[in-house]
């Protein structure tokens, strides 16, 4: 992959093997790398206090929730996981037990305590569809799910969920010229076939992308638009 420091390429990725001289992620951060730590368990989260981005936020004790804002750490959310489905109900909750199961994906608590939120998909583990991710972040349920809502107090409002997927994700990737509509920003825009703020939350997932612009250039147009 060519060096594109002046203009990062969003469509390529590179895996780096950390050598013996870089044992502390703070070294990578000081060298200008974006450090993202996957923190699925409780022990790991309690032992860190420097990461800029903490990803895969599955379990977070209540005492740790306000630490995100206090430390200036960004919570990188994967909202699709925060719903009742076979893996959650048959494999996760029975293993964690009732108390710890109630600590999962505390998006609402993180937002209420002032944490900066970003959101993504963890693709290819789960769908990369951001509209579906926003739907679950707001509803804490998969579309059409007949079961109970998963930890309803941890819902996000629609504006916060959309901001996490747009401005929040741009922030953690140091893409300062995109992620929001403002003077001087790149015209990286998506046009939906409806206003998700105008309809009921249960219908968010039905929105379809009519047009996608990257730096003002149309890169996707739905048929018939």
TrEMBL record:
InterPro entries: Amidohydro_3, Metal-dep_hydrolase_composite, Metal_Hydrolase. Pfam families: Amidohydro_3 (PF07969). Keywords: Hydrolase, Membrane, Transmembrane, Transmembrane helix. The chain crosses the membrane at residues 31-50. Residues 54-220 form the Amidohydrolase domain. It comes from the Bacteria. GO terms for molecular function: hydrolase activity, acting on carbon-nitrogen (but not peptide) bonds. PANTHER family: IMIDAZOLONEPROPIONASE (PTHR22642), PROTEIN LONG AFTER FAR-RED 3 (PTHR22642:SF2). This is Putative amidohydrolase YtcJ. It comes from Nocardiopsis aegyptia.
